[in-house]
Amino acid sequence: MAVSMYIVVEGEDPGFDIFVNGQALARNEDALEQLAERLRVSPLLEFFSADENSMSLLLEQGAGNPEWASHLPQPQWFNPSDGLLTVRTLADFLAMAPAALGSDTQVVLFELREYERVLRKTAEHGLQWHLAVSWR
User: Fold this and answer.
1) What's the pLDDT at 13?
2) What is the maximum alpha-carbon separation in the chain?
3) Strand, helix or coil at 133?
4) What is the DSSP letter of 40?
5) Residues in a beta bridge with 130
6) CA distance 92 to 81
7) Alpha-carbon distance 36 to 73, whole Å?
8) Coil, strand or helix: which one is 18?
9) Which partner for 26 in 3, 21, 37, 109 could form a disulfide, CB atoms 3.0-4.6 Å apart?
10) Using CA atoms, how far apart are residues 12 and 35, in angstroms rounded to an integer?
11) Could you tell me if 25 and 108 are in contact, meaning their C-beta atoms sit under 8 angstroms apart?
12) pTM of the prediction?
């Protein structure tokens, strides 16, 4: 089962491409959380929020109970500048330490730079965002 961490931008269509694969980020989430704490920035999962769309995908894939889906809180939205601080700090560190995550370092760095692109556009459009997780 492949897990992916992806960006959700508020609204139906933000007007720009928000796709980021996010599988390498998900695979290395524990190491990235420890790294974020060492670098004194918020870990990526602090930007996670469950929304109806992501939870309905889980239910379609046979995970979870439909009962709890009807009691979800409203999604939390975050300022893109907060996410940019985390993403840029992690990416800058990995660029200087190319072996930090072993063979995954370069693909994680690539996905972090994609996150940076999406969050920069999100800020330019005055929108907010959160992370979601997909299990395929």
Assistant:
1) 87
2) 47
3) strand
4) T
5) 8
6) 16
7) 27
8) coil
9) 3
10) 33
11) yes
12) 0.85
Residues with Cβ within 8 Å of 132's Cβ and at least 6 positions away in sequence, in order, are: 5, 6, 7, 8, 48, 49, 50, 51, 53, 54
Q: Are 13 and 35 in contact (CB under 8 A)?
A: no
Reduced DSSP (H G I as helix, E B as strand, rest coil) percent helix, strand, coil of the chain, to 5: 55, 10, 35
The set of residues, in sequence order, having a beta carbon less than 8 Å from that of 1 and lying 6+ positions away, is 135, 136
Collapsing DSSP to helix, strand or coil, 13 comes out as coil
Beta-carbon contacts of 71 under 8 Å, excluding residues fewer than 6 positions away, are none
Other beta carbons within 10 Å of 50: 17
Instruction: Give the C-alpha separation, 54 to 47, whole Å.
Output: 14
Which residues on adjacent β-strands are paired with residue 62? none
Could you state, in chain order, the average pLDDT of each consecutive group of 10 residues for the chain (136 residues)? 88 91 96 98 94 59 59 84 98 96 97 98 97 82
Give 93's DSSP letter: H
